[in-house]
Sequence to fold (654 residues):
Amino acid sequence: MNEKPHNNYNPKTGASRSRARQVVPIIAGAAISAFGLSRKSKSGLALAAAGGALAYMGARNQGERELVAHGSVLLNSSPMKAYLLYRNFEDLPIFMRHLETVTKLSDKRYRWIALGPLGTEIRWDSEIIDEREGEFISWRTLPNSDFSAEGSVQFKEAPGNRGTILTSIFHYDIPAGRLGASLLKLLGKNASFKMQQDLRRFKALVETGEIPTTEGQSHGPRSAVTAALRLANPDEPIKRGARMSEVFNAKRRTA
Amino acid sequence: MKAVCWMGTHKMSVENVPDPKILNPRDAIVRITSTCICGSDLHLYNGFIPTMEQGDIMGHEFMGEVVEVGGSVNKEKLKVGDRVVVPFTIACGNCFFCERQLWSSCENSNPNYWIAEKMMGYSPSGLFGYTHMLGGYAGGQAQFARVPFADVGPLKLPDGIPDDKVVFLSDIFPTGYFGAVNCDIQPGDTVAIWGCGPVGQFAIRSAFMLGAERVIAIDRFDYRLKMARDGGAETINYEEVDDVVETLKEMTANIGPDSCMDAVGMEAHDHSLMFAVDRAKQALKMETDRPTVLRQCIQACRKGGTVSVPGVYSGFADTIPMGAFMNKGLSMKTGQTHMMRFMQPLLERIEKGEIDPSFVISHRVPIDAAPDMYKIFRDKQDHCTKVVLDPWATAAAAD
Fold:
């Protein structure tokens, strides 16, 4: 953990394999489509459709794949304080919005439940494989989990008395099938973006004691479109019992 | 409660909405006694800034009485019953930026920071009653408002000093003052200020407070230019001269103003060909901002001088004269106002009688009249400079 930072910064190492599996069919599909369309005949049209289907499959490749999420924030706190707050895993759902519960099994083992799209439960158990108080935590999933992953979170004193630099990197092996698809949806198109949002909420919590929000504030009548977009907010996964009433009310108002 | 809601471009409406609630432990609820329409609200009215949503409550210049505080609000700093003026920027007081007095760059007050990051790289602080990109916080053109981080922003006011004198500590007085601070005024300096709206008016007076020898104010409305002259400025009506830059040159012994301030922003006007080009591009969404005044500031400023930009820009502007900017060795200072730096010292100036900010008020109306006032203010009808709304007066009572 004390190695020198790489001079060439490239956090995406490890993501290339899954990328190829997506990109190749998309390009091939598009080429076949273009060729088919240029024929201007029925068989050409069929060819174009087949190409389209291939590109579509590429765009949502359902095979197993790796995913890397990374993020970093500057925290106005000591590394020890930040570490202790983070290490209290059972409270992580406060700022990791996709998590439903975290249960302590033993000092090193925890059970995690996240909610995917339409309330699909995704479960995993994790074990801390290495940690040093106020410095870092490394973990990996245990075999009975819905997917396998490993990750580390580092807390490093920032120069010039600027607090703590928290760096987090998680590697996921996403399984094929429905569960994998749910997990992918949960992590979003950009898993690093979600992680960074989690870290920003953690930062707000550490620094101010709360997470900024406008959820639940007063407003005038929304349009149906606005209300629907609010529910589909990428920052707030739709949870079980999400109130659809706002959309319906808005529709009634605009009708 | 009553609230002025943005219902679409050129559509403001006073709606009955639920009273605000405490959502976070450091929130407070303020019962509003005075609230204003700001020139920057007109950018939203005109639909020039993206990420507004139908139903958003407008307003970021308000004051009133604290009626409820959350459990974590520092009671030594704020308690129920305090009379306060609320700054338009929301700041946590704990982050890297707040600790360095860069309050409008607060890292923790904008829950939608990621939208702003896509456009600007990094996000400024949350603002009241503005776009969702800047937090989407419900604003203060209403009877009540929820104020986050209430023990940081709101400034407690002494009894006896009327609302009219202190309500502009919420934005335009500190913003004009910050614009003047950013001019880096030295003894003997001449400051040219484009825009004689309320911020420009406060900037004129602040420039003199900070030691400017001359202030030259530029606008096209005579009633605003007169107000500028009342504040001690010399004035140029840009519709009466061929070329503002040339005129400034003549007025400054061919040296140029030491600092030039753009107190106009993204919806500037003039009578040049470039103005027509910018206006067309804006309409086609090829450009979000019309930098007519910014260009003139850069052209007019003396070598080694400072360009200060309190005027609001939202996105992208074309054909900035970078050659002039670089070769003349200019500096530019900008930003949403770091409100908490200036509110207390400016309150002291008001208390000492050095300035009475109420001079900018042209209209006092009940909140129900707000939708009409947006139009009047936008079209500069009826010598409109500054509109103060009373959230509790009824339309009938005011007639």
